[in-house]
TrEMBL record, chains A, B, C, D:
Binds 1 NAD(+) per subunit. This is Adenosylhomocysteinase. GO terms for biological process: one-carbon metabolic process; S-adenosylmethionine cycle. It comes from Gouania willdenowi. Pathway: Amino-acid biosynthesis; L-homocysteine biosynthesis; L-homocysteine from S-adenosyl-L-homocysteine: step 1/1.
Length: 491, 491, 491, 491
């Protein structure tokens, strides 16, 4: 996966979600004693008084996360997480709040902490605390705060976690290091991020993984939504919010035609841009051709581009030499991978002047007056300058909830101390829970048809090995190689 | 024309352009004496100190308005407006600043005033003043301020206008009423808005128009860009900035398939929405069908719509009965005409609760808890919640500049005391000035080919009557009636 | 109008409609006495025995011409053409057969003749005769036959026409020349073609038009369908049937971005081609840009084009110099205007070898072995190599039927001896009759809304001058000049 | 794979390729002694005299098969198939002729036979024979002829095959049964079809596969092209050639949203149809939603459909109950799997009347007069009624050629007696050979970038397990399950 969606809720530009939290005081939340309206004091957040505003944001998010709401309804009586004590470490946003409160509705006791020092929506944290879940997180933590919060989330009087929901692996890491004895009680780890999954595979390889773990990152549904569809939605949004640029007739150069590139190209073409593609992989290049895009080398079209968008997952795709040849006003941004795709170092030289014209928008000015418009300092555009639809996050969140339920309720022996992909059938179940949003009605196989196809009437409808590879994108091979190895164990 | 673009620069939601002007003081600009760096005091704006920030916004706008910049270059020596004294009344935004400064570059002396009490970008006004042009305008004028400013813009020591550039007709009205003697010196009026043009035709009809006037509103290029293309760009932007909604798979109901509706439908379909259309005109309905949209009555699809967008130019298109039947979470907004399309009165009743969840976003809550998401209180969505590309405004601004040049330089007798459309050839010239942006290269007719077609090599390439009617949209007939008066002979 | 749709039924390539008529005998139909099953001998066609096959083709066409079928139902009792004696001169195809038989169902007596010596579908002619309508036409008439047939269609014992339905003006011309006395009885002429309309305007200009005439060619609905939508459908079909070419990834050069060019570009882009446009008119060029096409000169992209399609209405658009620079295998065809757009003369030189590889497909071979693939010898591609949907023809045919009804029933004095466009309201009625095909449901204006818009609840919904100019295409100005004569007053 | 492209060259409708072979004599080719111009008599085809016409068709095909032509050039000196004796059993069409002659150019000796009794293009067979390759095939063989030809192709004086190129497995089967001793000399089998591959896996499972075999069917490139892109091209073509139907505004129901369904939906939507989808798999259904299609049950939309297209790979998807409820004129066709998807049996009942209105087009007439238009009797539409672009076939043919080269030249021990997929890198090589067609220019990784990604600069760029699963379609699991097992052996 190229796009690191776990960070996508940061909305520095328009700051809609920040409206309730503008007057950030100086004192550290750690120095402050607060209580929610029911007297709970076991939490540490910015300001419990922002709970009302946060509740409103959560309610807005609920509307676009019908699968979780659906899950709440279905499981109201059953309480499949009854007895589960979940410690969670994720971004703390309206959407994760919907997840947390769903877990609670399903019977779980939760404690929560942020996986990122900047991304916490303080008002949402307040609302979750007001709802009764201890949260340890605020926007703008220090490194020290970060680990202090994680520590506090794990340890509580008379409460020990038996499930871990992690995003990035820091919580898992801390428990391994600080509270190894807890691991005996842990019935499973659910991990969402590329990095966290990679760490788990390393543990497994080293024979040190002592808990079953579920790799949520590589589910089919998540892959398609986090990349192709999400980028189709967010590329236009990110460019508009930062530059108000008109798309019609503009010449756009998209570097990379994996899922992210496909999503960007499709949206830009649809709005009337003339799109060029660069590729290194001949198969992706052939797809780009057949989809109606000219495939050229960066150097061949760089002079005429109005926008350059990197989506390769590689490094130094756009370098100084290219930037030197771009025309005045060219917009440069990155939808791909961390902040390596554009060679920023080459732009921090004395002859170039940087001018911040808007938040997240820098003009880099050449000696001859030429200006290049750099967005988000080369970091992920949609992380920085657009929002990601709650619906997309809903798919990941639902997968996480189902993974927790599966691991918590699995009979002894179904899962060993290894990394697993969510069973195909659950992947299909997550998808089916989201169909109601579109008022989509599935057809059903007759007995006869199922027999003809040699599959069960209720799915899975595709073989299990489809899951990790339905896309043809730039992915680090190691995560998958290992994954597939694990598969042979589980099914 | 449905879309009233002259208001489109208001950006209350994201307020990017407002960054430099947040600390609005209490005292009225009328009570304040200010001077620009060259000592000029003949102006009245919020704060001259914001000039630097405004200049930056103007520079950003210049990049997307190449035709005006081009005009500056071409006319550097010629100065076709040398001797022109232009009093202008428009929105005061970065884009109009580019226009004003182009007129100055072409030789004109200008004085400027706002046509709207809310839309002035204070920092831009400051930059224009710093550049030497007297401006009388600030954001948040009172009614009294408004006319005071207009009055101040007209009168100056030893300066009397000989050209009027108006948007809405208020300036023209004021001069007619207060300074009729000035009209003798006025060589022409250039008017952009539907309303202003209508007023001019009424004057003409009544035999009271004593100055040649140019109707800029109905030029082909403007019509296409202000409606079809501009709405294609802004509908997605407006919806995203307010609601972060995902478009893929959503069922959207677009009321009206004129140019505005066509633009909206095209963009939404391209992003994966399922779009339904309502229409009253069978020809537009047939176009919608052929373009792949189901044409149904509002009542037939209202229950399943995720979004309802009005683009009819009519009133009470969406009424309480429809709103009662919408599903929870349905987004309702208006791209059409002022704020009449949604019956807002029916929503201000005691049993419905209004809740403002974000700027420009209200939840209207039914007794059973159903929430309808109303954007911009039913006013134009893109006026309130998105920006309009500078490029689109560039076309209008260029047309205005050319109209001024034409009227100012026309030989005696070419224009009488009537309302004119810009000659076809100038319309084509405006278009040609914008082709460079797209690096588009026009072909040229050979002598032989021109002869074959019976036209001049240099255009106009289409008959003049094409100009006002290349679209099949909802337009008030009166503006056109005059233009095509001859038609009444034929039928 | 560029596309001459009246010729489009010729299907020489696939010859589906020719299946029943393969064994063409030698003897002329003029030498043969035939009778239909009811004893009628007053006709002259190829072979009455083909009637069954022709009837099947007519039945197929009826399915796609619901408006005419609808008209039959509605008018069953009313018989608005009762007393009408229509002499018609059109292509004789399954679709015109549906028109003829509709006129009969509405009460008219008809006699029919072909407007083209090649386009008659013999079997269809037989079926129409078997149905009781005298037809004088066969495929492959000589010039002499052509006029003989026209003469026979006009004159019959005790039968004199009082209405003319013409396509091209030859019938009208013949009556003017040979039977001027008949004109006194004629209540109206309905003319479909550009050429025929032009002739009528000339007559009118010369003061010689002594009958009211209806110009069907310039109705809004016909313009949109015959050009934009029809070309969108037929460009792919014509290319596939002749060359089996794959569209995905191919570089296509479309010359001209009027309605025909727009239709071609839209379809080709949708199927994955990379499309370039050439234009002489800056307004059309700007539209092409905004729609996502690079606008370049022919010479700039000629080397890389896989296909070149002319849609300009001009002559010598593609000349030898361009052809010399095309790459091997480049496909060249014309969707525009007669056969002038490609300079064929320059290809008939001794150093180039022509090789017919399939019907309508020639390879032109350069001395170095390069092959250019020329389709339909530069004549209209969709005339020669594809079919036009019956639905499109249905719109024209319905308009013709309504024009006949209008002229036949109009009260004394409504129409003078001039050329008229179909009233706007009828244009809208034609459209509305076709909506049922799409199961489209029109909305209706409330009294209040109609009043607000200042129009009638039942239309017309747009001002009448919209009709002739809703497109921005390459059209010969003369046909319109008359219609909008009044315009010359304004400027 | 659903689409069985190996049959796609049959062109019964338009019969372009049949032009040279219309006068089919009565006598069996087996009774006739013919010689080519060089005296060769070791062949059995319809008529050697048609060679010239066939050669022209081959030359046309060559233009769209640049990869093979490229391969010829590159390998001119190297002759990598020198010493190879290939017996091939495929459809005999212009495109396979290009493949055969490429193998010869690479050094192979070939003998060829048809894999289907109907699909041979007689003229092409003649041209191949005239070129020196013995062919045993004609259009309209009997069952007995079929096996007689196969037998003749295998056995020749002093010639024994050492490579097999098969399509369907009949040739392989015959050698296994009749000439098992030959298998010792065979260095490899290359098999293209689903069926043939399935047979090979069965042999392998049973321990009876005694030769390395290459599964060409499941290469990434072939999958994408044969399904998604090919169906996008051919669905429109097939419908137009048979019914001349207009797509704009038509309501189309596509059953199944795998690769085939995706291709069909994309093309139809692009041409203005309103498309509905049915699905059983929630993941595919969710994709359809996000792509803008309503997902409904067949029974919910059957009444309003103008066309119903099956793409499921399942059986009895459209049954009598559905057909009874369709509206008059509804077109029904199959793009999916053999002829099982539409329940034809239910239509062969006494109360329904069948009427053949055109080749491949039947009207089925209900007692009340309703007509359903059934295409190709429910067999694959594009097999029967359209052509498949040579370019698509080029990809398969190139893959076959490379597979032959690989197996023939592989060092002892690289391939065991098992079924293999083409190495990923070769898949990429096939793709790269086709990029020239699009004038596409690949970018190259720098050493640094390759290191960063952990891959080789020259590919493969994706992990090998990507190959068989880049699509999410309805595929029989067995072919893949086994395939993947095989994979673990080879890489």
């Amino acid at each position: 996966m190229i796009q690191c969606l776990r960070l996508l809720n940061v909305k520095p530009l328009c700051g809609v979600s920040g409206c309730g939290e503008s007057s950030e005081e100086e004192s550290s939340p750690r120095d402050k004693l607060q209580r929610n309206s029911k007297g709970l004091a076991d939490f540490c957040i910015k300001n419990i008084d922002q709970a009302d505003f946060g509740r409103r944001e959560i309610e807005v998010a609920q509307q676009e996360m019908p699968a979780l709401m659906n899950l709440r309804k279905r499981a109201e009586e059953e309480k499949p997480l009854s007895g589960a004590k979940v410690v969670g470490c994720t971004h703390i946003t309206a959407q994760t709040a919907v997840l947390i409160e769903t877990l609670v509705a399903l019977g779980a006791q939760c404690r929560w902490v942020a996986c990122n020092i900047f991304s916490t929506q303080n008002a949402v944290a307040a609302a979750v605390v007001e709802g009764g879940v201890p949260v340890f997180a605020w926007k703008g933590e220090s490194e020290d705060d970060f680990w202090w919060c994680i520590d506090r989330s794990v340890c509580a009087d008379a409460w020990q976690p038996n499930m871990i929901l992690d995003d990035g692996g820091d919580l898992t890491h801390w428990i391994y290091k600080k509270y190894p004895s807890l691991l005996k009680r842990i019935r499973g780890i659910v991990e969402e991020s590329v990095t966290g999954v990679f760490r788990l595979y390393q543990l497994s390889k080293a024979g040190k993984l002592c808990v079953p773990a579920m790799n949520v990152n590589d589910s089919v549904t998540k892959q398609k939504f986090d990349n192709l569809y999400c980028c189709r939605e967010s590329i236009l949004d990110g460019l508009k919010r930062t530059t108000d640029v008109m798309f019609g007739g503009k010449q756009v150069l998209v570097c990379g035609y994996g899922e992210v590139g496909k999503g960007c190209c499709s949206a830009l073409k649809a709005l009337g841009a003339v799109v060029y593609v660069t590729e290194v992989d001949p198969i992706c290049a052939l797809q780009a051709c057949m989809d109606g895009f000219r495939v050229l080398k960066l150097s061949e079209v760089i002079r005429q581009a109005d926008m350059v968008i990197t989506c390769t997952g590689n490094k130094n795709v756009v370098v100084r030499e290219h930037l030197d040849r771009m025309k005045n006003g060219c917009i440069v941004c990155n939808m791909g991978h961390s902040n390596t795709e554009i060679d920023l170092v080459s732009l921090h030289t004395s002859e170039l002047k940087w001018e911040r014209v808007r938040p997240q928008v820098d003009h880099i000015i050449w000696p001859d007056g030429k200006r290049i418009v750099l967005l988000a300092e080369g970091r992920l555009l949609n992380l920085s300058c657009s929002t990601v639809p709650s619906f997309v996050l809903s798919i990941t969140a639902t997968t996480q909830a189902l993974a927790l339920i599966e691991l918590f309720n699995a009979p002894e022996g179904r899962y060993k101390q290894d990394v697993y992909l969510l069973p195909k059938k659950m992947d299909e179940y997550v998808a089916s829970l989201h169909l109601a949003t579109f008022d989509a009605h599935l057809s059903e196989l007759s007995d006869d048809q199922a027999k003809y196809l040699g599959i069960s009437k209720n799915g899975p409808f595709k073989p299990s090995y489809y899951r990790s590879a339905n896309t043809h994108t730039h992915t680090h091979t190691h995560t998958h190689t290992h994954t597939n190895a694990g598969l042979s164990n589980c099914f």
